[in-house]
Amino acid sequence: MKYFDYAATCPLDSDAASAYVKAATEYYGNTQSLHDIGSQASALLENCRKQIALFLGVESEGVYFTSGGSESNFLAIHSLLSNKEKKGIHIITSIAEHSSIHSALKKLDGFEITQLPLNEKGIIDMNQLREAIREDTVLVCIQHVNPEIGTIQPIVEIGGICKGKGILLHCDCVQSFSKLDMKEITRSLDSLSISGHKFYGPKGIGAMYISPHIHFQPYYPNASHERGMRPGTVNVPAIVSMTTAAAKQVRTLSSYNERMNALRLLFVQSLEEVKDKLVIYSSDAQAQLPAIVGMRIKGLEGQWVMLEANRKGFAISTGSACQVGLSSPSKTMRALNVEGKEAKEFIRISFGINTTVADIHELANLLIAIIQDAYRK
Length: 377
Prior knowledge:
globular, alpha/beta, 2 domains
C-alpha cells in the first residue's frame, strides 16, 4: 500500500529503532535509582534532554518528557494557569486546535474560552486576536502548524502581542518540530509540545517545554519523576529513540523541505485536468508546510474517496486522526466556515521521506479516475 498519511503518524526510523533496543538492553535502570545502573540511565536521559533543548533553541531545564503531544498540551496548560503573576479567567484559542487542547480547556472550571476562526488562507487574523483580548485574558493557545491543511501560524507576531499584554502563550508544535526551524519561534513562547511519532520516532513518547522563568505548580502533586512534573517510571529507551529520530530530521531539514515542496508542486500540477472539481486549502508559500495538502473534491464525500483510495492500495485521510470516526466535520473546516456537506468532502494528503515521484503520479491518476468516474454517473 502507498502511504499518504504521514501527518497522522510516521514509520519508525531504523536508526531510532536500533537506538531503542540498545537503550532498553544496556541502559535499563530506573533513572531515580541511586546505584550505578540507575545513574547511567539518568545520564543518558539528561543528554537527550540537552539535545532536544538544542534542537528547540531553549534551556534544557525547561524540557520535560511525556507520553506524547496530548499529555504535553494538557500538562502545559495546567502548569501555565497555576502561575499567579496575572489573575484572570479568560483564555483565547482557535476553533482549529487539536482535540487535546479543546478537551484540556473544557475540563477547566471557572474559565471563559474564546475560539477564533481562521481566515481564507487558514491563518489567525491578528486584528481578531487583538479584539478578543480582555483585561482578564491570561492564556493564548495557538498551534504552530495546522495538522489538516498545513498552514503556519505567525507565532512570533502572536507572541509579541501576548508579551505586550502580559499573557502567557502555549503552542502545539507537534506538526512543526523537525520540519521547521523551531529557534525562530521558541523565544516568543512560554510553553510548547512535541510528539515523537510525528517525526519517525516511536509512539507513546513526546516532550514539553515550559520556560524555566515562569513560576508554576505541576499538575500532579508530589510526583517523583521529571523533576516533579509527572509520575511513572521514565521511558528512557523511547526518549533515546525519539531523540535519535529528531537529530536525523533536524540534520536534513533543508533538503527535506526542498523535496516536500517539489512533491507538493508535482501533485497539484498532476491534478490540473480536474482542478475545477477541487478546492485546495493553503496559504502563501512562506506560511505553508508543503508536506500537508488539505483539499475537497466537490460533490464527493471525503470518507467515500478515502475508502475508494484504500481499496486501490492508497492510504489517505479525512483529517486529523484524533477526529476521524466522529460524525462532526473537521475542526479546520469549521474554523474556515465550511459547513454541511461541503465540510464532509474534506480529505488530507500528507507526504513523507518514503514518498516518491512515482507515488505522486499514481495517486494523482487515481484521484482523477475517481472524480471522472463519479461525475459520469
